[in-house]
Amino acid sequence: MKERAVLIDIIDPSVSNSESELRLNELDSLVKTFGGVSVVRTMQRRSIPDYKTFVGTGKLREILEEYEGAKNLDLIILNNILKPRQIYNIEEFCVKHEIEKLEEQERFQVPKKIKVWDRVDLILKIFDKHAKTAEAKLQIELASIKHMGPRIFGMGMELSRQGGGIGTIGVGETNTERMKRALQKRTSYIENKISNYGDIQSRQRQARDKRNQKTIALAGYTNAGKSTLLKALTKKQEVYIADELFATLDSKIGELFIPSETYDLPGRTVLMADTIGFIQDLPPNLIKAFKTTLAEIVDADLILHVIDISDVNIHLKIKVVEDILDELLETRIKNNTAPKRIFVFNKFDRLSNINRAEQLKLVEELLTKYHEHAPQVLSALDKDSLPKLVTTIAEEL
């Protein structure tokens, strides 16, 4: 049975209605990718979140009473980043609310607990679901420790109690202090392992440079079709493709052959790397945790920014990706060595719901607006639309 979730978004009054709707729709998509179902979506505009519970006890009580609390709910997910104490306070409020509802003869029972997650908790759950390689699993564990700390052990605020008795270290040492030391030790171990992976990948990139083998990085909003495009261009078969967010966490590298007739030199092979998809308000800790994966973007000779042309929020999502790319490539931009970015408007086949005249108008607007990025319009599922992109890649390289 799918877990039933309440989605709550606390947004600043200055945020537009369209962007507010996008935020909630995206959170809904994240819940579906995780495997849950949202039973209610609610939004609250306030400049300053509640200090104790972020959302406020009045709103929490309203939701719990309307949906009969733990009877009909499994999860409360806030589309924000909360402090551990705020998560704990919401969980405690929900438990007390459930106890208040119990009949006197039921008071000895332990009420069902509603789990409370913030936006990063949910993304980490999805990452954990999709992680395949040892490196990706370590990256997720590192991000989890940095975000949740002791909460990853499901111990909540109990860790603040003092320890004692056999096996404890130091008189009066608290569980929190011991756990903090254990987490620091684990963090150092993971960072060293990830650093080793990074060193290996760095040497591989250096070897490619010596062979003058060019690398193209695929970047874009999650679920824009990067993996499908990689498979179509490189014929790489072991590429996981799914209509869900964050389907790809690991770098996948394939070989793209550029035939000689596309430019003056003999035919050659270039490498093409798929990377983790981006998302609005992607927390900095998650970007840092995947720095070895994202290094393919930082060191690329060319970047294909893959865009879902059928997305109603296309311009906003382009800006999200471009802002993240600017951040990742900050040093190269300052040194004037940043790679060119080609905008690839993918999923043209999904425009079948509008007539030909509207399709042409949309394409013309996109080609004009983003002309400096050598824009290409295609469908990765249509092999006949790919040769022009290959020619453009050859020209840029």
Give a written overview of the molecule:
By secondary structure, the protein is of the alpha/beta class. The protein has three domains: 4-128, GTPase HflX, N-terminal domain (Rossmann fold, 3-Layer(aba) Sandwich), CATH 3.40.50; 131-152 and 172-211, no CATH class; 213-396, P-loop containing nucleotide triphosphate hydrolases (Rossmann fold, 3-Layer(aba) Sandwich), CATH 3.40.50.300. Helix content is 44%, strand content 15%. It has helices at 17-34, 57-66, 84-101, 119-130, 134-148, 175-210, 226-234, 284-289, 291-298, 314-328, 330-334, 356-369, 387-396, and strands at residues 4-11, 37-45, 75-78, 115-118, 215-220, 252-258, 268-274, 302-308, 340-346, 376-377. Strands 6-7-5-8-9-10 form a six-stranded mixed sheet. Strands 2-1-3-4 form a four-stranded parallel sheet, sandwiched between helices. α1 crosses α4, α5 (134-148) packs across α6 (175-210) and α6 runs parallel beside α9 (291-298). It is globular and about 80 Å long. The relative contact order is 0.09. The model is unreliable at 155-168 (pLDDT under 50).
